[in-house]
Amino acid sequence: MPRAGLTTDRVVAAAADLADASGLDAVTVSALARHFGVRDASLYTHVRNLQDLRFRVALLAGGELIEEIAQAVAGRAGKEALAAFAGAYRAYALRHPGRYAATQIRVDQSRVADSPALRRTAEITHGMLRAYGLTEPDLTDAVRLLRSTFHGYCALEASGGFGAPRDVQASWDKVVEALHVALENWPRA
To answer: Given pLDDT bands bounded at 50, 70 and 90, which one contains residue 1?
Structure first.
């Protein structure tokens, strides 16, 4: 029988908070059991194993991230939408480093196929990119360009990897401007 007050949502939220505070690697079933003052076995009523727990954190974080992006891009198109999308992405990644790290783990696609957050992510991202006149397979290529650029920049910034005296925000603004130019001039077959 589940411990009173302990729910899957509470366990996952605590795991996400722990990831932000101490890093995704610190998220273990034992660490959460200590947090809740229960034995490890008590948590297996709510999550199958560590992989399931981290997967659930990834879904939670992905939903939070796309919600912030959706709010930022609402009513915008083209360069303005791209800048809002990029800014929301970067802000979330820097504000929630552990949650953000969870969004980067490889997950079994069959487990996320029916995810509302994943569908919303595709809708928002593809909607923004369609303003540039992109269709498949260019949409997929453009999504990969954006994700790899945003992720790389955020990972380097979070780790203190930018040592030059140039303002990091100014460089970010140039990156977004360069992406806008690339999307406007996308190479088509």
So the answer is: very low
